[in-house]
Design goal:
single chain, alpha+beta, eight-stranded mixed sheet
Length: 476
């Protein structure tokens, strides 16, 4: 390969606005099998209509507090009206009725808060963590749709008597999810262990958990202006000071003296654990250099690094992942041809070729952005027409309702686009020192594998194709 070597790494590019949710599948994970086999999650909406929430006026939506208060009022009014309409409750004493109504308000407010989060705060591209019974394992997934309240078809898993072997959730408000992996309790961050004993059905754990959940989702990723990689430490033995020193010296040799102060480290090692190396976004290539130095093979003194940054939906959504794999195969083949040409020319020509590649890449990315913008505009237009057609006749010409639906559809499309991008960055003519990392890898049992057991994506593709939604009011 001459004096140059090309290295390419795929990096999960997590948007700054991504949220992380802990979602229970009811008590004792009653609906976990349903959620898993049918690619969705759901919440108890107390027989409310989704369209009533979607079309809450914009003047109320301008304040999250006002919007949350409106949800609470809608739930309370409905539940109290249901209580009052029950003739048996009219025969109770004033004291009994007061106690009943207080309990109803508490339960109703709890459901209102959960529904508010599920409808208004949860978004396409957010990550979901669903515990198994007793939290012995966790399902990890990504939200792929807006909320909808229509019925869906379910995979049938029948016993010898022809009965379904799992419980189907009765909850109406749903979101589609693609499952990424399963992780064991020991792989779920200790920092969030408190949540296993909490009783609420839905938690936003973004602020407490993003920094410890991202390494569980992917071993190398970009988030909030920094690029990270997770290095697993799997030794059962105590790590001595001399071993730590050897590890740090190995990293220094990989990075070179001039780059050591540009990379930082977080350690979470209690026997088995992990090390997180990270750098500012503009030094992304140093993280790839560490990755290659510890786990790859660098045979040349000058290398060319390429980082392909995939949005979460681009990486994990089945149809998009398949396309990305096909694109990568095509790029690999193209790179082989390019490298054969590079071997024949002088270093100055190589530099010019690198600049040309970058220029061509910029042009192609601009073309892709323009095409995607047009696609999104058409998608929004189609979704607005679809939702409006399902409204009552007298609501279709209501300007405030149409405005609310349009705003939500635009938000969904923007969110999808933000999570479905691909960006390629390149760094040329990097001088490296050959480092023997075998000894430190063996001593600390270092690994770069993704945490957990992947969930097969092709089966999910087939299921989703065979189980279309029978929707009534579907926001996307």
């Amino acid at each position: 390969m001459g004096e140059n070597e090309e290295k390419e790494i795929e990096i999960l590019d997590i948007p700054d606005t991504t949220k992380y949710w802990f979602v229970r599948a009811n008590t004792a994970a009653e609906y976990l099998v349903d959620f898993y086999n049918n690619n969705y999650i759901a919440t108890d909406s107390s027989n409310q209509r989704l369209i009533d929430f979607i079309t809450i006026p914009s003047n109320i939506r301008s304040s999250n507090d006002a919007l949350k208060t409106t949800y609470k009022a809608m739930f309370n009014d409905r539940d109290i009206a249901s209580y009052e309409n029950d003739i048996h409750n009219k025969r109770k004493t004033n004291q009994e009725r007061a106690e009943d109504l207080e309990q109803i308000r508490r339960r109703s407010t709890s459901r209102a808060n959960t529904t508010f989060k599920f409808v208004e705060l949860m978004n396409i591209g957010d990550f979901i963590f669903v515990p198994f019974k007793s939290s012995e394992k966790f399902l990890v997934g990504i939200v792929t749709s807006d909320v909808f309240d229509g019925s869906i078809r379910h995979v049938q898993l029948l016993d010898n008597q022809g009965n379904n072997t799992y419980h189907i959730s009765p909850y109406k408000f749903k979101r589609r999810v693609v499952w990424i992996k399963k992780i064991m309790r020991s792989q779920f961050p200790e920092k969030l262990s408190w949540i296993r004993n909490a009783h609420q059905s839905l938690f936003d754990i973004t602020e407490q958990g993003a920094d410890v959940l991202n390494p569980v989702i992917a071993p190398i990723y970009r988030y909030r202006g920094k690029v990270y990689c997770r290095i697993g430490v799997n030794t059962d033995n105590q790590i001595s000071n001399s071993t730590w020193l050897t590890y740090q010296l190995t990293l220094q040799n990989i990075l070179g003296k001039e780059n050591n102060d540009r990379v930082f480290q977080k350690s979470r090692v209690q026997s088995k654990g992990d090390l997180i190396q990270f750098a500012a976004d503009n030094w992304w290539w140093l993280i790839i250099l560490i990755w290659q130095g510890l786990f790859g093979e660098i045979d040349f003194n000058i290398i060319f690094l390429k980082g392909t940054f995939h949005g979460p939906l681009k990486k994990f959504l089945p149809s998009e992942k398949k396309k990305a794999e096909e694109d990568k195969q095509e790029r690999d083949l193209s790179n082989q041809h390019k490298q054969a040409d590079i071997d024949k020319i002088q270093s100055e020509t190589e530099k010019n070729n690198a600049e040309t590649r970058k220029l061509n890449l910029d042009i192609e990315q601009k073309k892709t952005e323009i095409a995607k913008s047009r696609e999104i505009a058409e998608q929004v237009k189609g979704e607005i027409t679809n939702v409006m057609s399902r409204l009552p006749e007298d609501s279709r010409n209501n300007p405030s309702i149409k405005s609310a639906v349009t705003t939500r559809m635009q938000r969904n499309s923007e969110r999808f686009a933000a999570n479905n991008h691909e960006t390629v960055k390149e760094r040329d003519n990097i001088k490296v020192v050959k480092v023997d990392a075998d000894k430190i890898r063996r001593n600390m049992k270092l690994s770069n594998e993704s945490v957990g057991t992947p969930v097969e994506l092709q089966k999910q593709i087939d299921r989703l194709k065979s189980l279309p939604d029978n929707d009534t009011h579907k926001a996307q």
